[in-house]
Specification:
By secondary structure, the protein is an alpha/beta fold. The protein folds into 2 domains: about 140 residues, Response regulator (Rossmann fold, 3-Layer(aba) Sandwich); about 130 residues, Rossmann fold (3-Layer(aba) Sandwich), CATH 3.40.50. Helix content is about 50%, strand content about 20%. It has 11 helices and 12 strands. The strands form 2 sheets. The protein has a 6-stranded parallel beta sheet, sandwiched between helices. Strands 7-6-8-9-10-12 form a 6-stranded mixed beta sheet, sandwiched between helices. Strand 8, helix 9 and strand 9 form a beta-alpha-beta unit. The longest helix has about 45 residues.
Length: about 325
């Protein structure tokens, strides 16, 4: 009997030991699962914002689509904001300032002007928010002086855009050459200035080409119509217009049609928006230099995600990563 009791006690002790060990293992596993879930939730809760110029232009709509597709691919949350127009400087600044207060870890900004959002970038940096500069370059010297920084700048190679358009016009006009004009964007706008610079250099390098006018039309269709009309009145024998965006190119094209010179004057635009591409297909607009706004948006978001994951330092002395997306010539 004593042997039986001793054996029974030993069996109970072993059983309790096994149960305890199992509980420890299961408990540890449960804790690991909880920790893993907490980490996943924490990652998925990281939010990003992108502040564009406007959504009234198909170029920016395509960029928004590219951003949202990349966000889905990366499994992150992103909110896309935009001003009502490409003139709404104060409105865009207010949108950016509001975004700073909403808990975003990274914000992408496509500034309307090189300086309008500098105060907001500085404020975002102070709060530990990473900023990526999209499409239109912020004045980096002024930003640094103000104590701000961006982790990167993603844009089209805009000098290449202008040079590509001008080269196409020069080749199209051939040895005969002729008078040409540039319809610029908004004065002082970095991307527009770069396009103008690229086109001007090509035109001036060709002895058969005479650049007779280079005037801004503020990215506006009706203003471009007026500018092109005035240039044609001053230079009735003009052979070509290069326009720094497609919206203005379509305005210039209308001026050419109004003057009864469709097919006699080349009109080349920039951006590759659907209406411009359709116009090229139908034989009206001569060509457009297409950008890839969806890729610009996607690459911008990638830079923000990378900066947040790697906890890159936020400092005015930190050199931003520069990514330039190549343009594409679109002809009939």
């Amino acid at each position: 009997m004593k042997g039986f009791k001793k054996s029974f006690k030993m069996s109970v002790a072993i059983l309790l030991g096994v149960v305890f060990s199992l509980a420890v293992v299961l408990g540890a596993s449960f804790l690991n699962v909880k920790a893993s879930q907490t980490k996943a939730t924490s990652t998925s809760n990281v939010k990003y914002a992108m502040v564009l110029k406007t959504l009234a232009n198909p170029f920016w709509v395509k960029m928004k689509d590219g951003i949202l597709q990349e966000a889905k691919k990366q499994g992150v949350k992103v909110d896309v904001f935009a001003a009502t127009s490409e003139d709404a400087i104060e409105e865009q600044l207010k949108i950016f300032e509001d975004a700073i207060t909403k808990g975003y870890k990274g914000i992408g900004i496509a500034p309307i002007s090189p300086v309008n959002v500098i105060p907001a970038v500085v404020e975002a940096n102070k709060k530990g928010i990473y900023v990526v500069n999209v499409d239109e370059q912020i004045n980096m010297d002024q930003l640094k002086k103000a104590g701000g920084s961006v982790v990167g700048f993603v844009t089209t190679d805009n000098e290449k855009v202008g040079a590509m358009a001008a080269t196409y016009i020069v080749n199209k006009l051939g040895k005969q050459g002729g008078k040409v004009a540039i319809i610029e964007g908004k004065a002082g706008n970095a991307s527009g200035e770069a396009r103008k610079r690229g086109a001007t250099e090509v035109f001036k390098a060709n002895k058969n080409i005479q650049l007779v006018a280079s005037q801004p039309a503020d990215w506006d269709r009706l203003k471009a119509l007026d500018v092109a009309t005035n240039i044609m009145q001053r230079f009735p024998d003009i052979k070509a217009f290069y326009c720094a965006n497609d919206t203005m190119a379509l305005g210039a094209l209308q001026a050419v049609i109004n003057a009864g010179k469709l097919g006699k004057i080349l009109v080349v635009g920039t951006d590759g928006i659907p209406e411009a591409v359709q116009s090229v297909k139908s034989g009206k607009l001569t060509a457009t230099i297409a950008q890839d706004p969806a890729k610009i948006g996607a690459e911008s978001l990638k830079l923000l995600i990378k900066a947040v994951k790697e906890k890159k330092p936020i400092s005015p002395n930190q050199k931003p990563v520069i990514i330039k997306i190549d343009p594409i010539l679109v002809t009939k």
